[in-house]
């Protein structure tokens, strides 16, 4: 009778441990699905909001950033400002998205 009771309590302990593991797995799966939903929502929102990129000329870049021509070119040289894109033989432009990203980095406290 003692052997039967020991086997029964071992089986009961194993069932309790399996149920606890199953609950932990279900909780982790629920968290993962929540994160995936949030990521897909952000990705969808970002994709839907994204308009075609424009190329900005120097006066508009100066106006948006508050930097003068010399500071823009100096920071480009140091690699901390977006590189210009040639739109013609004598025309330098910047992608609006790159300028907006640079501005967002400054607002978030990232150094220039």
Automatic annotation (TrEMBL):
Signal peptide: none annotated. Gene3D superfamilies: 1.10.238.160. InterPro entries: AlpA, Prophage_regulatory_activator. It holds the Pfam family Phage_AlpA. PANTHER family: DNA-BINDING TRANSCRIPTIONAL ACTIVATOR ALPA (PTHR36154:SF1). This is AlpA family transcriptional regulator.
């Amino acid at each position: 009778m003692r052997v039967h009771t020991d086997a029964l309590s071992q089986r009961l302990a194993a069932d309790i441990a399996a149920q606890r593991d199953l609950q932990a797995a279900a909780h982790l799966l629920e968290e993962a699905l929540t994160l995936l939903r949030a990521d897909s929502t952000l990705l969808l929102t970002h994709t839907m909001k994204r308009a075609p990129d424009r190329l900005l000329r120097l006066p508009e870049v100066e106006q948006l950033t508050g930097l003068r021509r010399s500071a823009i070119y100096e920071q480009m040289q140091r690699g901390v400002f977006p590189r210009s894109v040639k739109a013609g033989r004598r025309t330098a432009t910047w992608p609006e998205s790159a300028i907006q990203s640079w501005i967002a980095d400054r607002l978030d406290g990232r150094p220039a």
